[in-house]
Amino acid sequence: MASQPAADMDFKALPKIEVSHLFCTYTVETSLLAPISRRTLHDIWVRKKQAGETDLADPLVEMPDGKHDYNLTTFFPLFSSYIYNLITDPVTLHAATLSVLQDFHADGVTYLELRTTPRSLPSPTPQPPSAYVSTILSAIAAFEAAHPGPGAMRTRLILSVDRRHTPAQARETVRLASRFREQGVVGVDLCGDPAARVHGVPGQDDVSIFRAPSPRPRSSG
């Protein structure tokens, strides 16, 4: 039997393994590394706007669905502004994570590793990075419980240390990875701008400052 042409294959039906940043995924439509969908950001913006919690313009006005002529220089600063100013509380973070998981599941992904950099959540009351991690893990558990059986997607979490972080921040990320290991955190990695300086401190412009925290994740498996 002759094989079907690749153009006739249902690529979404093929099981896939994916590693992606939680709010930064590749989309064919834009040919860019794009975070959560603009539609999801719009829905979050509507709730925040009605509650008087944001002065940002509508994401769908600033970044219309039909606009694809972005590049990395123009796209990421704009999206990052919306992500950091709209995803500020556990409820919103939980909903945004579910949206990302749904997109991967709809694309036929069966095993997913998400990378994210732990950060504080400023509202409604300040929440530490541990709350950020636990909220994402809670969303993952809820999604897996709601989508069992054949075609189910298993998701694990990787915590990222930003190159702009201090050694103390790096140690905290490693500690969180160890603390949440049994809940689905499977590793730690280094992310961010390779040219970044740490607060402009001489001698703190390369990965050597992160060598001290690294033995602990290895000893934790």
UniProtKB/TrEMBL annotation:
Residues 60-195 form the Adenosine deaminase domain. GO terms for molecular function: adenosine deaminase activity; metal ion binding. Its cofactor is Zn(2+). It holds the Pfam family A_deaminase. Gene3D superfamilies: Metal-dependent hydrolases. InterPro entries: A_deaminase_dom, Ado/ade_deaminase, Metal_Hydrolase. Residues 202-221 are annotated as: Disordered. It catalyses: N(6)-methyl-AMP + H2O + H(+) = IMP + methylamine. It comes from the Eukaryota. Keywords: Hydrolase, Metal-binding, Nucleotide metabolism, Zinc. GO terms for biological process: adenosine catabolic process; inosine biosynthetic process; nucleotide metabolic process. Belongs to the metallo-dependent hydrolases superfamily. Adenosine and AMP deaminases family. This is Adenosine deaminase-like protein A.
